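Support request from a user on the community tier.

User writes: "When I paste my structure tokens into the form, the page sometimes reloads and wipes my input. The last time it worked, I copied everything first. Here is what I submitted, just in case something in the input itself triggers the reload:"
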């Protein structure tokens, strides 16, 4: 364990003030209701005035938190102060009402659970230690709780020890659960935010062509005007060689700009047609060619064709998803990547094989989670098998794809199988 990460003060480890305030109001109301039922209905006598005073102080601290603390997100340190106070307050109430023999003693673990969900691991450990110490104190030092016959209740020591152990185990278990749950929730939230960023960027890139075409159309008329004026100016200059050269340069550069704008407009028209519908084979070839430009590795595409060729929308989700898995295959392969496309009446299947090290056994079942760490030496911590694969998998699944991952392919490396049912693209 990296102990430097126990207290992560610079990270976004905050507890919402409204959440804590509501939780404390619930606790205060519950405490007030419980002591009144026990005292007046069950007729069990204990220092109720002192209990009222403890609850009143708790209410005042919560009012201070609600109305005097102006920040909405309590930092790790400030939130822990209120949680420690809640531990002490509840311990005093338990001291006044029978100690660990009070059935409400299990409520002592709540502040640590809240901390494990919202705050740092270091704060949670400290609260757990404080909880354990307070539990031990009220186990041996507390006011007795009389029964109906006003005789003091007595329990053997092993019963007392059993209660301590059970509360302690519950504290560890629930705190660990809270830490893992909060961690996984945070990771998934970050991953989904990245997912939205990817989709937004892909759509932005898609719209650039349209913007370029609009610019080409807008600049066409001014450039034509410049060209006409420059030609007329050349006639007026006549035999002035120096000025004539400058005008010729102006005319040639204007012509060059016009040709560039024509190419942009032409390309956009082609892309508009292309975007409406595309064959899987053409899309794969486009993606593969982009990697061939930057990699010397051999990338083969084989296609098992069917008379009923499926066309799809060229969506950013499918493009990014396929690029991610093909890119991973190219990245981890030694020298070769083989991609097979099968399309028939029942299934559309893409198999991506590589001759790399394959998928490590310790992460094969975790593929698709936002963040993955492997013990394999072949894979570094920034290998891209975590967040990138999560994004690619999620985007493709949004497009009705199913993904399977195998440790070894025909080439010896990893195998990714992506499948669709043809009806998934029936409206394409």
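"...and here is what came back when it finally went through:"
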């Amino acid at each position: 364990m990296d102990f430097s990460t126990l207290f992560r003060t610079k990270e976004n480890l905050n507890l919402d003030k409204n959440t804590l305030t509501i939780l404390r109001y619930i606790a205060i109301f519950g405490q007030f209701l419980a002591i009144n039922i026990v005292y007046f209905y069950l007729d069990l006598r204990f220092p109720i005035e002192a209990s009222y005073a403890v609850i009143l102080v708790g209410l005042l601290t919560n009012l201070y938190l609600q109305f005097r603390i102006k920040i909405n997100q309590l930092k790790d340190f400030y939130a822990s102060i209120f949680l420690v106070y809640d531990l002490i307050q509840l311990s005093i109430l338990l001291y006044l009402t029978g100690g660990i023999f009070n059935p409400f003693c299990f409520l002592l673990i709540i502040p640590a659970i809240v901390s494990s969900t919202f705050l740092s691991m270091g704060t949670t450990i400290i609260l757990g230690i404080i909880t354990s110490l307070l539990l031990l104190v009220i186990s041996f030092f507390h006011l007795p709780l009389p029964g109906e016959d006003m005789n003091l209740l007595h329990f053997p020591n092993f019963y007392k020890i059993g209660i301590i152990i059970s509360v302690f185990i519950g504290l560890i278990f629930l705190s660990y659960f809270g830490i893992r749950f909060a961690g996984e929730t945070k990771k998934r939230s970050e991953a989904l935010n990245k997912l939205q960023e990817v989709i937004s960027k892909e759509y932005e890139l898609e719209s650039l062509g349209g913007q370029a075409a609009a610019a080409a159309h807008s600049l066409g008329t001014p450039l034509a005007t410049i060209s006409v004026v420059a030609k007329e100016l050349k006639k007026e200059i006549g035999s002035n060689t120096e000025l004539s050269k400058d005008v010729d340069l102006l005319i040639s550069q204007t012509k060059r700009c016009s040709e560039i704008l024509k190419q942009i407009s032409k390309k956009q028209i082609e892309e508009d047609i292309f975007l409406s519908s595309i064959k899987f084979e053409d899309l794969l070839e486009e993606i593969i060619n982009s990697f061939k430009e930057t990699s010397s590795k051999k990338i083969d595409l084989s296609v098992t064709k069917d008379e009923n060729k499926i066309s799809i929308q060229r969506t950013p989700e499918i493009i990014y998803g396929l690029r991610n898995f093909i890119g991973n295959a190219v990245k981890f392969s030694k020298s070769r990547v083989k991609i097979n496309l099968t399309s028939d009446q029942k299934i559309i299947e893409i198999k991506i094989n590589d001759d790399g090290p394959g998928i490590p056994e310790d992460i094969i079942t975790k593929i698709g989670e936002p963040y993955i760490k492997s013990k394999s030496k072949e894979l570094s911590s920034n290998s891209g098998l975590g967040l990138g694969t999560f994004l690619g998998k999620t985007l493709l699944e949004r497009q009705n794809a199913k993904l399977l991952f195998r440790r070894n392919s025909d080439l010896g490396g990893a195998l990714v199988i992506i499948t669709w049912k043809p009806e998934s693209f029936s409206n394409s």
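Agent notes: The reload is a front-end session timeout and is unrelated to the input. The two ends are 51 Å apart (CA to CA). The longest strand covers residues 336-343. Escalated to web team.
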